[in-house]
From TrEMBL:
Stated name of the protein: Benzoyl-CoA reductase/2-hydroxyglutaryl-CoA dehydratase subunit, BcrC/BadD/HgdB
Family membership: Belongs to the FldB/FldC dehydratase alpha/beta subunit family.
Names of the cofactor(s): [4Fe-4S] cluster
Coiled-coil intervals, chain numbering: none
Signal peptide, first to last residue: none
InterPro entries on file: FldB/FldC_alpha/beta, YjiM-like
Keyword Ubl conjugation assigned: no
Keywords: Iron, Iron-sulfur, Metal-binding
Length: 422
C-alpha cells in the first residue's frame, strides 16, 4: 500500500497534511544533512525522519490488522513495558510543531503550554498518522493543563488517564503501584492478551535494552571533543518514542560502536574548546529542534539534556524480577525516580542537573522553559539558586515552537558563549 492510500484509510486530512509536511525536507536538510562529519550511523535515523509518516505507520497498521492495538502516550511515566509485553505498540505522541497550535487554540486557552496545544491540534486537524492509527491515548495527571486537556481529547479518541501522585512518599508509591496494576488489567482487557511472567519479563527486557542503548549514547557525550552533535542526539531521543524498541536499540548501539572509534581517535564534531552546554527544563518533542540548533549555530555543543526528551526518559531501569506481581511492583518503582517538576518538592531534579553538569563537564546550563509551563517556570527559581550556589554559569530561556524569536534567542545564547570563552 502506498503512503497516501494508508493516510486515506486513516481518515487524514490530506490537504492540510501536505501543507504541514511541505517545508520539512528543506528544514531537515539544512539543520541535519548539510552538517559536516556526521557519523554514518545517523543514516538510519535520517531515513526514519525522511519517511516519518510512512514506514513506521505501515508497521503499526499491519500490527493492528493482525489483532494488536496501538496506545499513544504523552509522558515518560506511562509504563510502556506492559503494552509491549502484550505484543501491542506504545508510541509517544507529544508534539512540538507550531503548525497545529492555532487549531489547538480553538478549544484550549491561548495562554497554555504550546506542547499541549500542538498535540491537541494534531488530533483536531487529522494530520498525524500516529494519532490516527492509535486506538487509545494514555494520559496522566501530571500538570493541570494536560490533566484537563484529556477530557477534551476524549471526545475525539478514547482516553485512559493514569493518576500520578504529586509527592513521593510511601502512600504515593502505593497509589502509583495500584494505578500500574489497574493499567495492566486495562491493557489485558483491551488487547485480550494475558500478562504472564514470561511475556512481561520480555517486555521489561526490550524497554530496558532501549534505555541502556540511550544511556550508552548519553555517556559518550562526556568526551571532549564531543563525538556527536547535540542536535543529532536530540533527534534520536525524539525518535525513541516512535520506533520499534528492538530495532531502535540495535541502531543506537551500532551508532555508539562508531562513536567509540571516534573517541579513540580523538575525533569530534566540534573543536575541543567549543563551550559545552547542558540543557534542562521542559521536553522538546519532535520536531522542536530550535534550541539545540541555535546553541550549536552559536559555536557551542549540547552535551546533555536533563529533560524528558533526554535523560529523564532513560536514566533508570526496571529491575527484573521472578514473578509477575514483583515485576509489576518494579515497573511502578522506576517512574517515581524520575524528577518531573509536577512533583513537590523536587529536590532530586536539582541534584540530577548538578550531577550531569559535572559528569558531562558542561561549561554552562540552559534552563529552557516552554511558554506558560507553570511547573518548570516556577521551579526555575530553585534551578537558578542551585546553579548559583554551585558556581555553574546558566541562562534561563523561554520560548515556544514558532520561529519568530530565533534572532533574540541567538543573541542571548551568543552572549553566554562569549562569556564562557572569556
Ligand atoms: S515533563 Fe513531566 S509531565 Fe512532561 S513528559 Fe516529562 S515527566 Fe511527563
Ligand atoms: S511542558 Fe509543562 S505545561 Fe506543558 S505539558 Fe509539560 S509540564 Fe505541562
Amino acid at each position: 500500500m502506498e503512503n497516501r492510500e494508508l493516510w486515506e484509510r486513516l481518515n487524514m486530512d490530506l490537504v492540510k497534511h501536505d501543507e504541514f509536511l511541505a517545508p520539512v525536507p528543506q528544514i531537515f536538510t539544512q539543520l541535519f544533512l548539510e552538517r559536516k562529519d556526521r557519523p554514518a550511523g545517523m543514516g538510519y535515523f535520517d531515513a526514519v525522519v525522511g519517511d516519518v509518516h510512512g514506514i513506521r505507520v505501515h508497521e503499526l497498521f499491519a500490527m493492528k490488522e493482525a489483532g494488536a492495538k496501538v496506545f499513544s502516550t504523552f509522558c515518560v511515566y506511562v509504563p510502556e513495558e506492559i503494552v509491549v509485553a502484550t505484543g501491542s505498540a506504545s508510541i509517544g505522541l507529544c508534539a512540538g510543531a507550531q503548525f497545529t497550535v492555532p487549531s489547538g487554540e480553538k478549544v484550549l486557552p491561548r495562554n497554555m503550554c504550546p506542547l499541549i496545544k500542538s498535540t491537541m491540534g494534531f488530533k483536531l486537524d487529522r494530520i498525524c498518522p500516529y494519532f490516527q492509527v492509535s486506538d487509545w491515548v494514555i494520559g496522566e495527571t501530571t500538570c493541570d493543563g494536560k490533566k484537563k486537556a484529556w477530557e477534551i481529547l476524549n471526545e475525539h479518541i478514547p482516553t485512559y488517564v493514569m493518576e500520578l501522585p504529586q509527592k513521593k512518599n510511601a502512600k504515593d508509591s502505593k497509589l502509583w503501584e495500584e494505578e500500574v496494576r489497574e493499567f495492566a488489567a486495562f491493557i489485558e482487557r483491551e488487547t485480550k492478551v494475558t500478562l504472564t511472567a514470561e511475556n512481561l519479563s520480555e517486555g521489561i527486557e526490550k524497554i530496558n535494552n532501549k534505555r541502556k542503548a540511550l544511556q550508552r549514547l548519553a555517556d559518550l557525550r562526556k568526551h571532549n571533543p564531543a563525538p556527536i552533535h547535540g542536535l543529532d542526539v536530540l533527534l534520536i531521543n525524539q525518535l525513541s518514542f516512535f520506533d520499534d524498541p528492538v530495532r531502535f536499540a540495535a541502531q543506537v548501539n551500532a551508532l555508539c560502536d562508531e562513536l567509540d572509534e571516534r573517541v579513540k581517535e580523538g575525533r569530534g564534531v566540534a573543536p575541543a574548546d567549543a563551550p559545552r552546554i547542558l540543557v534542562t527544563g521542559t521536553p522538546q518533542p519532535l520536531p522542536a529542534w530550535k534550541l539545540h540548533a541555535l546553541v550549536e549555530q552559536a559555536g557551542a555543543v549540547v552535551v546533555g539534556e536533563e529533560t524528558c526528551t533526554g535523560e529523564r526518559y532513560y536514566k533508570d531501569m526496571t529491575e527484573p524480577a521472578g514473578s509477575l506481581q514483583e515485576m509489576l511492583a518494579n515497573i511502578s518503582k522506576r517512574p517515581l525516580k524520575v524528577n518531573c517538576a509536577c512533583f513537590t518538592p523536587n529536590q532530586g531534579r536539582l541534584e540530577d542537573i548538578v550531577h550531569m553538569a559535572k559528569n558531562l563537564k558542561a561549561d554552562a546550563v540552559i534552563d529552557f522553559n516552554l511558554q506558560f509551563c507553570q511547573p518548570y517556570g516556577v521551579e526555575g527559581y530553585f534551578v537558578a539558586k542551585e546553579l548559583e550556589k554551585q558556581n555553574i554559569p546558566f541562562l534561563r530561556l523561554e520560548s515556544d515552537f514558532s520561529e519568530e524569536d530565533q534572532g533574540q534567542l541567538l543573541t542571548r545564547i551568543e552572549a553566554l558563549v562569549e562569556m564562557i570563552r572569556g
